[in-house]
Amino acid sequence: KFIRGKREFLTEMELSQYIALYDANKLTTKLQKVLRHFIFMCSTSVRFGDLEHMEKDFVISDFMVFRPQKTEDSRTILKVPLNKLAKRMIVEGEGEKGKIFKCISNQKTNEYLKLISMMLNISKKITCHVARHTYATLFLKLGGKVEVLSKILGHSDIETTMIYVH
């Protein structure tokens, strides 16, 4: 039988703790960079695999427009709105050759996120994918529609989006 796992996400309060830690700028360069990436993912719903490939050309006005790495349909194009926080993380990015971010591995990023969470006394198991669930949960909590969320997340089936509805 399929057993649905517990889907972790950050509350608004918890996310604000991560942002405050980033703003304090007291972390090592590696941890600060990982935290910037995580905050961007929480602000946009972007997967880690897409974060690695984000290019400055993908930013069009107030949107990030790109082809997701995970989808089988190469015609799928996502148009993700960029809030002020996401735009700030882009500006403060450290990428090279047109890239926005210079990422380390997903595994190492998750390891660093665990350290950062411990510093904040947040006992949830925080990974890159938690950022996607955080975005979806907060989007819906703030009055967003499931149908719109489905488009932002790039889901072809609304049932997939329903996983994010807590």
How would you portray this structure in words?
This protein has helices spanning 12-24, 29-44, 48-51, 84-91, 106-119, 128-141, 146-153, 158-162, and strands at residues 59-60, 63-66, 78-81. It is mainly alpha-helical and 166 residues long. Helix 2 crosses helix 5.
Structure keywords:
single chain; 166 residues; mainly alpha; 3-stranded antiparallel β-sheet; 3 strands; globular
**Rg:** 15 Å
Order of helices and strands: HHHEEEHHHHH
The count of helical stretches stands at: 8
Largest sheet: spatial strand order: 1-2-3
Q: What is the distance, rounded to the nearest whole angstrom, between the alpha carbons of the first and last residues?
A: 21 Å
Tell me the major beta sheet. Answer: 3 strands, antiparallel
Average of per-residue pLDDT values? 91
* Secondary structure: number of strands: 3
Summarize the structure.
By secondary structure, the protein is mostly helical. The chain is 49% helix and 6% strand. The chain is built from 8 helices and 3 strands; from the N terminus they run αααβββααααα.
Architecture blueprint of SSEs:
Layout: H1 12-24, H2 29-44, H3 48-51, E1 59-60, E2 63-66, E3 78-81, H4 84-91, H5 106-119, H6 128-141, H7 146-153, H8 158-162
Antiparallel strand pairs: 1-2, 2-3
Helix pairs in contact: 1-2, 2-4, 2-5, 2-6
